[in-house]
């Protein structure tokens, strides 16, 4: 598309992958002007299938997107195969290729997952972002940024972003620039943010095309003495090998044939190649998530081996954590934005940790055979299975202190689970009250506790009385990303309600 000249935006998002699009949805929902610059032309095919896990699905539900995603799953070719693979067990997911996670009755939350192509997921989010007013600029590459130097640790005011498209080079002004431009992030490099981590031990190829003598190759996932071979029902094939040099040139069909030979012993020819890419277990985390008015989210901030299908989930959850905070910062309320990195970096660290563990547990060799056998038996223990399931499904994410448990109002940070509510609006699910992305003040008393003190925040905070619904406290203030901001037991003092709203939604007198 042709960009308007000299246009200033609240936020420019570099990269229109799933994370950039999710962030655009969140920002546009709050009325923030946002442009997404995506270097690829519209509709560039890419046959990567993403598994979206329970916590991501809960967040999509909060924004009324889950039904569309669920409907779209039916169009994904390998869903049936995935279901078939799990059909003979009660498992719902895998750790290091051990399909044992989330056995029935083993987890508190019922884990769920959806399989969608990256393209479909991105397109659904792009459609929502556009409907909410975001500007999507395909074929537009971010190539430069300039921001005044930070002074005394204070963020500089705004960013000048250079973009290149078919019309040439131009500059855009933005209050904030967010790099959602993937693992090789240009924004991260331009902002001078380091990307420390560990170099690859594995190299994998994934391809879509025609294989000769494919009947000699097994379908599904196979761990052999030299590595992993995978053949999906939609024709995708993949190999993973350890301790080999990673070629620097673009991948070739020949490389795939050689890798299949090394791993399976079969000589095949790979032709009519429709897609071919190479990836590794290079595991890296951005040294910081923010430099002045530049932020990072998704793969731009963290990369790891795609074991367990966690990268997009992690990034989508970055976007939902960041969206409301950045929207508030665009209105001058920066307090919550300072919590983005402290909340999200530890979550990424944990994912990097568990993917490193999975790579170790996937390695060929008799020692690892023994370890896998032991792990299989450990995963039959409910507590172990629960711990791993919650890690992969993202349902262990908690910002802040532990719940008090054993009495007293819960402490902030836990995800507030969806539930049916009987409210002054009628029966409704908690998730449905979050569609507009505003903080949610739920009053479980007779409704008199929150309404009067919250009145000055009415434009910014949704106040709902749910008398008669059992809850963990008399009043809950739920953040736009579904995590608990504040809770109080009866008797609730009006000044405490006002203090909590000031902390989480800014002073009452502020403009919306
Ligand atoms: C084989 C494989 C399987 C995977 N399976 C899963 C899975 O099942 N579940 C899961 O959660 N994750 C999975 N992942 C990881 C997942 O694909 C990524 O974590 C996810 O795509 C990251 O999203 P993103 O939007 O941050 O980055 P990307 O998807 O990389 O998107 C970045 C976008 O930015 C654009 N861009 C780059 N540079 C610029 C620039 N300078 N200017 C403008 N645009 C730019 C790119 O064209 C791209 O569209 C898998 C990864 C691989 C390799």
How would you describe this protein?
The protein is an alpha+beta fold and 512 residues long. It folds into three domains: 264 residues, FAD/NAD(P)-binding domain (3-Layer(bba) Sandwich), CATH 3.50.50.60; 79 residues, Alpha-Beta Plaits (2-Layer Sandwich); 86 residues, Glutaredoxin (3-Layer(aba) Sandwich), CATH 3.40.30. 30% of the residues lie in helices and 26% in strands. Strands 1, 2, 7, 8, 9, 10, 18 and 19 form an eight-stranded mixed sheet that branches. Strands 13-14-15-12-16 form a five-stranded antiparallel sheet, with helices on one face. It has a four-stranded mixed sheet with strand order 24-23-25-26, with helices on one face. A hairpin with a 2-residue loop joins strand 9 and strand 10. It binds flavin-adenine dinucleotide (FAD). The site of flavin-adenine dinucleotide (FAD) has 32 residues, from helix 1, strand 2, strand 3, strand 8 and helix 8. Flavin-adenine dinucleotide (FAD) binds next to helix 1, strand 2, strand 3, strand 8 and helix 8.
Secondary-structure blueprint:
Layout: E1 8-14, H1 18-29, E2 34-38, E3 49-53, H2 54-62, H3 66-73, H4 79-87, E4 93-95, E5 98-101, E6 113-117, H5 118-131, E7 135-138, E8 141-146, E9 159-165, E10 168-179, H6 186-190, E11 197-198, E12 202-211, E13 220-223, E14 228-231, E15 236-242, H7 253-264, E16 270-280, E17 283-285, E18 290-291, E19 294-296, E20 302-303, H8 311-330, H9 340-362, H10 366-378, H11 382-393, E21 420-423, E22 426-429, E23 440-443, H12 451-454, E24 462-465, E25 475-478, E26 484-488, H13 494-505
Parallel strand pairs: 1-2, 1-10, 2-7, 10-19, 23-24
Antiparallel strand pairs: 3-6, 4-5, 8-9, 9-10, 11-17, 12-15, 12-16, 13-14, 14-15, 17-20, 18-19, 21-22, 23-25, 25-26
The structure holds flavin-adenine dinucleotide.
């Amino acid at each position: 598309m042709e960009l308007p000249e000299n246009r200033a935006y609240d936020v420019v998002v570099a990269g229109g992958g799933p994370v950039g699009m999710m962030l655009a949805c969140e920002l546009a929902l709050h009325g923030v002007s946002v442009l997404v610059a995506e270097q690829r032309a519209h509709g560039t095919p890419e046959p990567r299938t993403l598994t979206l896990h329970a916590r991501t699905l809960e967040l999509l539900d909060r924004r009324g997107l889950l039904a569309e995603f669920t409907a779209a799953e039916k169009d994904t070719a390998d869903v049936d195969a995935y279901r078939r693979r799990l059909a003979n067990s009660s498992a719902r997911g895998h750790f290091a290729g051990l399909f044992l996670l989330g056995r029935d009755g083993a987890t508190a939350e019922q884990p769920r997952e959806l399989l969608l192509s990256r393209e479909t997921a991105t397109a659904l989010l792009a459609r929502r972002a556009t409907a909410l007013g975001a500007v999507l600029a395909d074929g537009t590459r971010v190539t430069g940024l300039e921001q005044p130097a930070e002074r005394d640790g204070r963020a500089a005011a705004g960013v000048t972003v250079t973009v290149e498209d078919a019309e040439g080079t131009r500059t855009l002004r933005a209050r904030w620039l967010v790099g959602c431009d993937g693992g090789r992030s240009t924004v991260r490099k331009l902002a001078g943010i380091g990307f420390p981590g560990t170099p690859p031990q594995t190299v994998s190829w994934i391809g879509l095309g025609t294989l000769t003598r494919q009947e000699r190759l097994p379908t599904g996932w196979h761990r052999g003495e030299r590595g992993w071979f995978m053949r999906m029902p939609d024709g995708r094939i993949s190999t993973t090998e350890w301790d080999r040099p990673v070629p620097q040139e673009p991948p070739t069909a020949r490389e795939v044939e050689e890798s299949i030979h090394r791993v399976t012993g079969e000589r095949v020819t790979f032709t009519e190649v429709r897609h071919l890419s190479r990836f590794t277990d290079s595991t890296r985390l951005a040294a910081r998530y923010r430099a002045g008015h530049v932020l990072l989210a998704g793969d731009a901030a963290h990369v790891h081996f795609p074991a367990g299908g966690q990268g997009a989930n992690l990034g989508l959850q970055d976007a939902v954590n960041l969206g409301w905070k950045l929207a508030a910062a665009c209105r001058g309320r920066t307090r919550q934005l300072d919590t983005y990195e402290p909340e999200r970096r530890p979550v990424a660290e944990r994912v990097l940790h568990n993917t490193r563990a999975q790579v170790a547990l996937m390695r060929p060799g008799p020692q690892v055979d023994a370890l896998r056998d032991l792990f299989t038996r450990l995963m039959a223990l409910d507590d172990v299975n629960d711990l791993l399931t919650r890690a992969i499904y993202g349902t262990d994410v908690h910002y802040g202190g532990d719940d008090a448990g054993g009495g007293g109002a819960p402490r902030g940070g836990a995800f507030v689970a969806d539930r049916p509510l009987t409210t002054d609006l009628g029966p409704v699910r908690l998730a449905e009250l979050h569609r507009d992305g505003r903080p949610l003040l739920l009053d479980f008393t007779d409704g008199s506790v929150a309404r009067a003190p919250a009145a000055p925040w009415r434009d910014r905070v949704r106040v709902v009385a749910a008398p008669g619904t059992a809850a963990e406290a008399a009043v809950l203030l739920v953040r736009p990303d579904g995590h608990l901001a504040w809770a109080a037991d009866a008797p609730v003092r009006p000044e405490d309600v006002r203090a909590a709203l000031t902390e989480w939604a800014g002073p009452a007198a502020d403009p919306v």
